[in-house]
Amino acid sequence: MVEVIVAHARAGLPNEACGVIAGEDGRPVRVYPMHNAEESPVVYRFDEHEQLRVFTDIDDRGWSLLGFFHSHPRTEASPSPTDRALAHWTDPVTGEHVPAYPGTRYVIVSLAGDEPELRAFRFEGGDPVEEEIRVP
User: Fold this and answer.
1) What is the fold, at CATH topology level, of the domain defined by 2-131?
2) Which end of the chain is more exposed for a tag (fewer CB within 10 A), N or C?
């Protein structure tokens, strides 16, 4: 799956590439490379129709939404201010800043160096928490 993510990131150059990771029992089972509707080197957005198809497929298979991935073509594999903002929303009643998709991971692949670098983060509060990526 790492190879699929890296290949999709490279194919998306010079723009950011993006997609979804489905899981079962907390383990990744499938990667869904998706089109970056923004076609931008600094931000990504899923096409809403494609996102609905992917989320429906994940649900139909009894899987869970494990995470999202996107690339940083020219910067490090750390959440940008835009990434941090998009990972949260503000509750209109309480004004609280809450995760958009609690429990999901955000995998960032950097293509800035000689070799791709992948890092994963959770957004459960204010600052991102890095998690280990284990590749069998």
Assistant:
1) Cytidine Deaminase; domain 2 (3.40.140)
2) C
